[in-house]
Structure formats: structure tokens, C-alpha cells
Amino acid sequence: MVVLNKIYTRTGDAGETALGDGTRVPKTSTRVVSYGTVDELNATLGLARLHAEGDLAEALSRIQNDLFDLGADLCRPDMAKDGEAGYPVLRMVSAQTDRLEGEIDAMNARLEPLRSFILPGGSALSAHLHLCRTVARRAERHTLELAAEDEVNPAAITYLNRLSDWFFVAARIANDDGRADVLWVPGANR
């Protein structure tokens, strides 16, 4: 259980922060940038949820929770030491990605195949989901950068990759099952 009885601690005033295992690192470290971008994605998703209803709203709520799991995973280095923590360390698992894939398949079955690239827009929810998609891609790039220099749970990377696909398909669903998608017209303004 998390207990936050004081919001500011002053421990980060010198430009460092603590990782999940207590290690102090610069706030500019690749690991902090990675999970910080996941946090930004979660905040962006919160804006999208303001426009969602029904099944899509429930799915977005589940994804927000997954993103907290992902941040907890990314903020804890050295997976080999998980057993030494004294408590179960939260790591992403393949079932979370499997759920996304099932939802992508179900949503995609409702859509006509694309014959053009889509411009972000249409409904407010669709536009917000496209923003989520781009932030998810950035979080994935930062996490891949982290993986090039330090250990990262492969399930975390796979989840981020699939999540951006999920946002793309969900954005089409939010545009009246793709009927209100804004299509790119190459060279339209020449």
C-alpha cells in the first residue's frame, strides 16, 4: 500500500531522484526519462478519458492502471535482485499485452481497411487518442534507449509497442468506426 503523507521531500532539489530500489540517480537519467514519459502518457490518457464512454472508457481505465504498473517496472533496475526486495516486485507480464492484442483484433474487425493515412482528428476522443499514440511511441523509444544501456523487462517494451497500435485502432473506433476519419490527401495544398 502506498501512503503519501507529505508531497514535497526536498530530496530532489539537487537534481536527483530515487529509483524503486532506493538508488539515487540524476533526474535526467535514461531510466527516469523512460518512466517519466510513461507518466506523461498516463496524464495524456486521462484527458482522452474525459471524452470516452462505455467499453472504451473502461478499456482506457484499465490501460491507465497498466501504465502505473509499467512505471513501477521501469523505475526498478536489476531484475536479478527482485527476490531480495522483501516484497513482490511489480513487473509487466505478457498477459497485459495479450489483452491489448485481443482488444485490437475485436476493434479492428469493426473497421473497413485503410486506403489512406489518417490525420489526427475527427472527434475530440480520436484526436486525444492519436496524441496518446504519439506519446506512447516516444515512451517506447526512450525505453528502447534504456534497454540499450541497462536491463529492461522485455514485456514492458512489447506492451508499449502494442499500446501505440491499440491507440491507433481505438482512435478509428472513436471516429464512428472509421467513417469520420480524416484522411490524408497527398499534395493537396500544392
UniProtKB/TrEMBL annotation:
GO terms for molecular function: corrinoid adenosyltransferase activity. It comes from the Bacteria. It holds the Pfam family Cob_adeno_trans. Signal peptide: none annotated. Gene3D superfamilies: Cobalamin adenosyltransferase-like (1.20.1200.10). It catalyses: 2 cob(II)yrinate a,c diamide + reduced [electron-transfer flavoprotein] + 2 ATP = 2 adenosylcob(III)yrinate a,c-diamide + 2 triphosphate + oxidized [electron-transfer flavoprotein] + 3 H(+); 2 cob(II)alamin + reduced [electron-transfer flavoprotein] + 2 ATP = 2 adenosylcob(III)alamin + 2 triphosphate + oxidized [electron-transfer flavoprotein] + 3 H(+). SUPFAM superfamilies: Cobalamin adenosyltransferase-like. Pathway: Cofactor biosynthesis; adenosylcobalamin biosynthesis; adenosylcobalamin from cob(II)yrinate a,c-diamide: step 2/7. Its EC number is 2.5.1.17. InterPro entries: CblAdoTrfase-like, CblAdoTrfase-like_sf, PduO-typ. Keywords: ATP-binding, Cobalamin biosynthesis, Nucleotide-binding, Transferase. Residues 7-173 form the Cobalamin adenosyltransferase-like domain. It is an enzyme of class 2 (transferase). NCBIfam families: PduO_Nterm. Belongs to the Cob(I)alamin adenosyltransferase family. This is Corrinoid adenosyltransferase. It comes from Litorisediminicola beolgyonensis.
